[in-house]
Design brief:
This is ATP-dependent RNA helicase SUPV3L1/SUV3. GO terms for molecular function: ATP binding; helicase activity; hydrolase activity. InterPro entries: DEXQc_SUV3 (IPR055206), Helicase_C-like (IPR001650), P-loop_NTPase (IPR027417), RNA-DNA_Helicase (IPR050699). By secondary structure, the protein is an alpha/beta fold. Among the domains are: 143 residues, P-loop containing nucleotide triphosphate hydrolases (Rossmann fold, 3-Layer(aba) Sandwich), CATH 3.40.50; 145 residues, P-loop containing nucleotide triphosphate hydrolases (Rossmann fold, 3-Layer(aba) Sandwich); 64 residues, no CATH class; 65 residues, no CATH class. The chain has 29 helices and 34 strands. It has an 8-stranded mixed β-sheet, with helices on both faces. Strands 9-16-13-10-12-11 form a 6-stranded parallel β-sheet, with helices on both faces. Strand 21 and strand 22 form a beta hairpin. The N and C termini lie far apart (102 Å). The relative contact order is 0.05.
Length: 830
């Protein structure tokens, strides 16, 4: 489109950074009068200031819900879309018209797109996705595409500490904005903060800091996606999810592009990225491609609501607002807040009593349009509107002077932190909105001035509070010096890892992790953190080489599965392909090293881990190899794999069929690597020693199995106590648990005492027991395949292998208690 286009409707479509808004301003100023509707009060104010510089303050008007600057000779009006007056002007423009697809405000933009027209020229500005809607709804419009002046490129994920200067970090809640800004204050000296809820005065003051270079970073909500003019080189997304008023959802690609497009200025290229390279906060490849190539799904519908409702009665008003749109691409808008409030008030008898005339119905509807700047929700806001309408529908129809004055006085204090002051500004905006309704107050001009002055005071206080909380100007200034000559500031690392800059202790270097001192937020110590970070690189490289060269004795595995070197965690174990093959995961603190150094460290630690596994858990390593041995039979491989997966201790009964398929020679292979094929369990007795047992517990833990350690030297435990499980090497028997190797000694002694299936009596010399109770002995003998015979003297008979399920145990005759106790002595004398 050439710059001299006039007459009719023109739709200027394209991505961000195409100069669409600048073109609309030029076209408007070329006409004798004009008006542009914007999506944000902040944007309307920004363009107002630009047009005032061209045309003069007495010829330009600003019309928003909370603010009206309307000189008598005003010819050019800058408005929010909701506040565009019905005025005959030569030029009309509508910015960000694709917002007609927004569920909350879309019907407003659709109405302006359909009905707002200039005498001589109408210009609709929007994204390329709007093209089908323009063709369907404004068939006579000329559609012009404006390409982006510069290139927008994906720069990947960068941590906050590594973001380039002139970056804007975008978050989607006030809490997230404050958290990111606080992080930047500590790492980079500070950041400006921009949110849609800020007043224009606060927003302009914050942006001015960023534009002037007082801070190099800007933290904002998605408000910056709506054309706010800032010199941003890189846009980083703190998140890709937002709460849209009803649910938490992922941004659409078009929304991502709208925000990312703020990067770059005119013909200077820009970049975008995220703070995370995995999870829901990371860009998908197809999203990156669509943003870089400006290819987005076309809009198929716009939201619509009757722009000229019927004020004959409340019911007629509600019916007209809920009317279905004409057939085609328009969809009925979801119920907005104003309609929800209207329905709530329509249930009140006194409201219906006072709205018998169309003028009073229109007055009620105007009251329902009071925005909920405080975000208190439908019910509290409806109660507030009800009180307002109560005053508007009685007497002279004015809001009482005293109520208005009391509310303004209550808000007129600058004490409090950022959220408190921001909340007062939101409340003040409601009263400013009311003050702009000339027929709602006896002295509207007076109260408009009062609310404007209050908002300015609160805005100045909010700017000061934001700056105090999120900006350290001394740190920012020092960082510029550091950037010019990092070597000029001496950094000393003490023998205990203490980091000092110019004799100021500012933190510790524990291994590879730099920890800021607890009092480093004090400005005189925090100033030097950036210098320390730059100079720590050499020390970390030296430590990385020391780790590579470290002897095995300097490396250890702690109980939390962390591999520790010189007292500092450098890696951890994770679940691997099998029990004896855990995964080695380098500690994130090593991310500060380059790729080559990390690979050398990983190789060193892998070699150490393999050696320790062979030393402490040799049987598991051998079982893992045997389970993959192509020369072994399937049955042997299955048994080896099952024992290894169980950590070297496995009950025999579930493996009975597999064991029966293992021939004698293969059983010898199992015994050769240390596996005892016991009567009840398969195990390696070496795994019960303290250090192998500790490694077993740790490896089981990384696979999700918790094994508690028994007390040192225990042979028999009370059932339910720590370690009284088969996984820990103790077989539960009744109310006790016995170490598995002792059970096998008892089993051998019992089988040595019997002759075939003839009854036999336990050796009385077994009286000195290890603590086995009679009930535990009887349970054990039953599981070993013996049956107790009736009589005063305990005798047993071999009945064969136990069945697949547990054998019920008969209560022990008290007369046989002493004789049973002797059997436990087999443990010591067997």
């Amino acid at each position: 489109m050439s710059d001299d286009v006039s007459g009719g409707v023109t739709a200027v479509l394209g991505p961000t950074n195409t100069g669409k808004t600048h073109l609309a301003i030029e076209r408007m100023c070329a006409h004798s009068s004009g008006m542009i509707g914007f999506p944000l009060r902040l944007l309307a104010r920004e363009v107002y200031d630009r047009v005032v510089a061209i045309k003069g303050a007495n010829r330009v008007a600003l019309v928003t819900g909370e603010e009206k600057i309307m000189p008598p000779d005003a010819r050019w009006l800058l408005c929010t879309a909701e506040s565009m007056p019905d005025r005959d002007v030569a030029f009309v423009g509508l910015d960000e018209a694709q917002l007609g697809a927004d569920p909350e405000r879309g019907h407003v933009f659709t109405d302006r797109l359909l009905r707002a027209r200039g005498r001589e020229e109408t210009m609709i500005l929007g994204s390329e996705a709007l093209r089908p809607m323009i063709k369907a709804l404004v068939p006579g419009a000329e559609i012009v595409n404006r390409p982006r002046f510069s290139t927008l490129t994906y720069a990947g994920a960068k941590k906050i500490s590594r973001l380039p200067k002139r970056s804007a970090i975008v978050a989607f809640s006030a809490e997230e904005v404050y958290a990111v800004a606080e992080m930047l204050r500590r790492l980079r000296g500070g950041a400006a903060v921009v949110m849609g809820a800020l007043s224009p005065r606060t927003r302009n003051a914050q942006v001015a800091m960023f534009q002037a270079g007082e801070v190099d970073y800007l933290v904002a909500t998605d408000a910056i996606g709506m054309g706010l003019n800032m010199d941003v080189a890189h846009v980083a997304f703190a998140s890709l999810n937002k709460f849209d008023g009803k649910r938490q959802r992922r941004l659409t690609v078009a929304e991502m592009a709208q925000i990312a497009g703020r990067a770059g200025r005119h013909q200077r290229d820009g970049t975008f990225g995220a703070l995370s390279d995995d999870g829901p906060g990371a860009f998908l490849p197809e999203e990156v491609l669509a943003i870089e190539e400006h290819r987005f799904p076309r809009l198929e519908n716009l939201y619509w609501r009757q722009g000229e409702p019927d004020f004959a009665s409340i019911d007629a008003l509600v019916a007209s607002l809920e009317a279905r749109p004409p057939a085609g691409v328009l969809r009925a808008a979801p119920q907005a807040l104003d309609l929800g409030v209207l329905k709530r008030l329509a249930e009140e008898g006194w409201v219906r009593e006072r709205t018998r005339h169309p003028k009073m119905v229109a007055r009620l509807w105007a009251a329902c349009g009071i925005p909920d700047f405080r975000k208190v929700g439908l019910d509290p806001h409806a109660r507030f509107v009800s009180r307002v309408f109560g005053h508007l529908s009685e007497g002279r129809g004015h809001i009482p002077h005293q109520w208005f004055a009391d509310e303004i006085a209550r808000l007129d204090t600058v004490a409090g932190d950022v959220p408190v002051i921001a909340g007062r500004i939101a409340a003040t905006r409601i009263w400013a909105y009311i003050a702009q309704r000339a027929d709602w107050l006896a002295e509207p001009a007076h109260w408009a001035a009062r609310t404007a002055a209050l908002e300015e005071r609160l805005s100045d206080a909010l700017h000061a509070s934001l700056t105090q909380r999120f900006v350290d100007k001394r740190t920012t200034a020092l960082m510029r010096q550091i950037g010019a000559d990092a070597a000029s500031l001496p950094v000393v690392i003490g023998p205990e890892g203490e980091v000092m800059v110019e004799d100021h202790p500012i933190g510790r270097l524990d291994g590879f992790r730099f920890t800021v001192a607890a009092d480093a937020r004090a400005s005189d110590k925090r100033l030097l953190l950036a210098a320390a970070e730059k100079r720590l690189a050499g020390e970390r490289t030296r430590r990385g080489q020391s780790l590579v060269d470290a002897p095995d004795a300097d490396i250890a595995l702690d109980e939390s599965a962390q591999i520790v070197w010189a007292g500092h965690p450098v890696a951890r174990l994770g679940a691997g392909p099998s029990f004896a093959r855990p995964k080695l995961i380098l500690d994130r603190a090593l991310d500060c090293l380059d790729k080559t150094a990390r690979e050398r460290i990983e190789t060193r630690l892998s070699r150490w881990l393999a050696g320790m596994l062979k030393r402490r858990l040799a049987v598991l390593v051998d079982l893992a190899a045997l389970s993959r041995d192509a020369d072994a039979t399937p049955a042997l491989r299955a048994v080896a794999s099952a024992i290894e997966e169980a950590g070297g201790i496995l009950p025999r009964l579930p493996m009975r069929l597999a064991l029966e398929a293992v021939d004698p020679d293969e059983r010898k292979r199992l015994r050769k690597i240390g596996i005892m094929i016991g009567a009840l369990d398969l195990f390696d007795i070496r795994l019960l020693k303290p250090e192998p047992a500790r490694w077993r517990r740790i490896l089981a833990g990384v696979r999700g199995t918790v094994i508690t350690a028994p007390r040192d030297g225990a042979t028999v435990l009370a059932r339910g106590s720590d370690g009284a499980t088969l996984e820990a090497g103790f077989r539960p028997l009744g109310l006790q648990a016995v170490r598995v190797d002792l059970i096998e000694r008892i089993a051998r002694a019992a089988h040595d005492s019997r002759t075939g299936r003839a009854p036999f009596a336990p050796d009385p010399a077994l009286a000195t027991s290890i603590g086995l109770e009679p009930a535990s002995i009887e349970r054990l003998m039953a599981e070993l395949g013996f049956k107790a015979l009736a009589g005063d003297t305990p005798r047993w008979v071999w009945r064969g292998r136990p069945p697949a399920r547990a054998v019920p145990v008969t209560p022990i005759d008290p007369s046989r208690q002493n004789a049973f106790a002797g059997l436990a002595a087999l443990v010591r004398h067997g």
